[in-house]
Amino acid sequence: MDLQTFLTQTFRSWSPDPPEQISRTQHDVTLRWTPGSWRFVEGQLLYRIERREKIPAWVLVYSGGKTTKTIENLAPSQPHKFRMKVLLKSSAVNNLSQFAIDHFGSEEAVYKYFSQEVENDDDNLGDDDKHNEKNDSLGDCTDKKPSDNFNGNENTSIPNGTGDHQLKQVVSNSQSRPWLESRYSGQVWTATDSEGASVICFCMAVRCGYLKQIQQMLEERPQLLEVINSVNGMTPLITAVRKGDTPTVRLLLSSGSAVDARSSSGQTALQLALYCRRTGIAQLLLEKGADVAIRDLNGLRAEHYAVDSNSLESVQLVYCGGGQLEVKDNRGWTPLFRAVLQGADIEIIEDLIKRGADTRVVDVAGLTIADAARLLKDKSYPRDAVVRLVDPSYPHEQAVTHFTRLTRKIHSMQTLFK
């Protein structure tokens, strides 16, 4: 057997090493491969990379002369299988023996080198490789298309895929000359990176106060700090605040959570901390620069939430942190107005009045605070106690009421004696 025929048969029976993965992301993997024993014709080789699919069984993802390629647009957290075939350009086939002699120095050296390579390949081919080879050959028979045949004569075309224009150009110049194809390489498994911890898992970890898991998830996906739970519309920080979990709040703040991040209804962590009577957490948020002037969708500020909590400590804290007395919500209600309407403890109403809250405020419906106080039902304290605080004319009104009642009694007695 002459050298040209020997090399041609050796190339056709050669199974190259499978590509290796050198890097990966969530949506792509980068593969690298080598020409192996045929490095002396490296410039004349083209590579065909295929990815395993269901229908068809194998899909061409690259064809060209490069030895590295990034396969893009892959699903995250998914395994992917690749294989490779090497092709020798038709322009180099007739000169293959001369290329080998120039590289190795003599025909004897060429025979010796490739004979050893063939023996090594046979020794390294295990039962699993033979089984895969058989399956691949069957798959090639069923899935092969005319455009996939590189050994045809006329009308032979090379699929471009995502490869170089070099492949198409070579084919157009060598329509009548055969290409040499190697066997397919072994199959290599790769996988894209996962998208990291899910939003649901992170929100659950925050709700349960699992500090170690929270920290690990944030190291993997820092953007989880600002996600909004689709179930309750709350950020992780607000969730921890409502639960009263101070260690988790500290961890989230130290990890970079925005202290004024809002929920889907526009509420901030400070507003809910005051409303839930988490004064320790509210103090921490104020120290971190929480803004008391932010309004929710109803125009309520931190001062209104403090009053709605019916906690004197929350009210005192928000005003020590820069709260204002005359801010109004969308209905025109000041904190004092809301305290009266919400039936807040009389200590809160007294505290607001002592701080200088205006008792003559009128809301958008034209209702005064005194009118609102008269609409209250007696609770743990008499209604008149609130009216006395918010109505400047209350003493005169009470005197008129007593005089009218006394006059009616006198008139009744006079009528009785007649």
Q: If you had to describe this structure to a student in words, what would you say it looks like?
A:
This protein is of the alpha+beta class. The protein has three domains: 3-191, Immunoglobulin-like (Sandwich), CATH 2.60.40.10; 196-323, Ankyrin repeat-containing domain (Serine Threonine Protein Phosphatase 5, Tetratricopeptide repeat, Alpha Horseshoe); 325-418, Serine Threonine Protein Phosphatase 5, Tetratricopeptide repeat, CATH 1.25.40. It is built from 19 helices and eight strands. The strands form two sheets. Strands 3, 4, 6, 7 and 8 form a five-stranded antiparallel β-sheet that branches. A three-stranded antiparallel β-sheet has the order 1-2-5, with no helix packed on it. A hairpin with a 5-residue loop joins strand 3 (45-52) and strand 4. 31% of the residues are buried. Mean pLDDT is 81; it is low at 126-176. Residues 148-160 have a biased composition (Polar residues). It comes from Plutella xylostella. Keywords: ANK repeat.
Oligomer: single chain
CATH topology name of the largest domain, in short, is: Immunoglobulin-like
CATH architecture of the largest domain: Sandwich
The top level CATH class name of the largest domain: Mainly Beta
* Uncertain spans: 126-176
Our count of helices gives 19
